């Protein structure tokens, strides 16, 4: 066989997000954007005049707002989603260092300077904010939608919190979209579920190392004789949480 007849090795991709995880993200994001767009039309006189159909916009806003937690609750059926929730809920020592250092995104020899896990500290803080914002908007929205059982004090406070939190959500969402669109690797991971190992090593070195151990296990195991592995899930051998860099070497007293 001539050398040019030899098939090139198959490209290896890391499975970053399952189909269920991507669906949860896309549906929740779509509902959030609809809520923001309808809220802008309801509260800004200029937009309200141009768009019209105020009652219809109000109905869409209320229904989408109450539907926001639904994808997340249904997503708890997914084991991969629950594992990612545990990661997002944990702060490891390298996360605190990521927040302190200005060179947190620096790359040396093709690897990030910090052993960042599947999610960096900024993504974890964003997830915590979104979860809290959804609950708070849901509670204040319920008081505004069904005001009869509530006193004037509660209704006034809820309206104040709802309106101002909306502005904060707009700012955070704009920052989230900005970071997503300027990082094609991260965007590809959320759209297709798979990322390049080189991108993972640059931005999530700890997670890439975890994947590499899984990859080596597959290649050396008796059942993994095929050297061309197209998709390898970085969580495939995570039967124990202690093997994950998000959980290992935590500060004393953290859970």
UniProtKB/TrEMBL annotation:
Superkingdom of this protein's organism: Bacteria
Membrane topology: Multi-pass membrane protein
Record's keyword terms, sorted: Cell membrane, Membrane, Transmembrane, Transmembrane helix
Domain annotation Cytochrome b561 bacterial/Ni-hydrogenase: ranges: 16-193
Places the protein is found: Cell membrane
GO biological process assignments: anaerobic respiration; formate oxidation; respiratory electron transport chain
Composition bias type Basic and acidic residues, residue spans: 235-249
GO molecular-function terms, A-Z: electron transfer activity; formate dehydrogenase (quinone) activity
A GO CC annotation given for this chain: formate dehydrogenase complex
A Pfam family per the record: Ni_hydr_CYTB
Main location: membrane
Entry annotated with the keyword Transferase: no
Membrane-spanning intervals of the chain: 23-48, 60-81, 125-144, 164-181
PANTHER family: FORMATE DEHYDROGENASE GAMMA SUBUNIT, FORMATE DEHYDROGENASE, NITRATE-INDUCIBLE, CYTOCHROME B556 FDN SUBUNIT
Protein name: Formate dehydrogenase
